[in-house]
């Protein structure tokens, strides 16, 4: 199988992987399950209730409804929590925005010439690197809040499924980044080993007979 065919198959495979990463990212943004906690009322006859935090809304099992979040916390003066949470939301949306040009780059390379496929891994790797960095910052910010915020660390708050989906997204993207760099460097190495000048067989010229007088 030629290098061109291998690169085409790799980019098709990478396109499917990046689609999985986008799906996980969208799910983490859309679902309100970044943090969740189960509370038990003081009344023994009361039923426990659950509260979940999303990037944009907070949901309660008591009212069976969701409200905007963290707008209320900003009003009450908890500025640090509000700023960190909104930064997390911004980072996740930014990663989704970067994934857009990444998909366009994959589609362009799939339908491009051989030369563009050979050199296109540089731009792809750079975009994937940005996605991984941005999403790791978002994950770390939520973990920081869970460990340091007084409203969270003293209660039964845990990381939820939305945080897990975002974590899965950057892990998948990181794996694709490493694979892209390996394939790209291998392609460069293969073409560097190709001889630039092909030796031509020497042709013996017949000796010219000189006449003597």
TrEMBL record:
Record key words, sorted: Membrane, Transmembrane, Transmembrane helix
Membrane spanning residue stretches: 7-30, 90-111, 123-143, 163-185
Highest rank taxon of the organism: Eukaryota
Name this polypeptide is given: Uncharacterized protein
Organism: Lipomyces starkeyi NRRL Y-11557
């Amino acid at each position: 199988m030629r290098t061109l065919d291998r690169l085409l198959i790799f980019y098709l495979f990478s396109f499917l992987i990046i689609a999985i990463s986008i799906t996980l990212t969208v799910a983490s943004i859309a679902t309100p399950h970044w943090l969740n906690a189960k509370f038990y009322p003081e009344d023994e006859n009361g039923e426990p209730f659950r509260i979940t935090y999303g990037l944009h809304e907070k949901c309660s099992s008591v009212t069976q409804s969701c409200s905007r979040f963290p707008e209320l916390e900003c009003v009450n003066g908890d500025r640090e929590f509000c700023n960190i949470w909104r930064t997390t939301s911004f980072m996740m949306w930014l990663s989704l925005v970067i994934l857009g040009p990444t998909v366009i780059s994959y589609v362009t390379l799939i339908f491009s010439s051989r030369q563009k496929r050979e050199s296109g891994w540089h731009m792809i790797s750079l975009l994937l690197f940005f996605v991984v960095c941005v999403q790791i910052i978002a994950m770390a910010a939520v973990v920081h809040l869970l460990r340091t915020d007084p409203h969270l660390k003293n209660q039964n708050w845990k990381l939820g499924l939305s945080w897990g989906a975002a974590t899965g997204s950057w892990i998948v993207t990181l794996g694709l980044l490493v694979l892209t760099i390996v394939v790209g460097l291998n392609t460069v190495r293969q073409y560097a080993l190709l001889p630039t000048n092909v030796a031509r067989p020497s042709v013996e010229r017949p000796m010219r007979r000189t006449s003597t007088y």
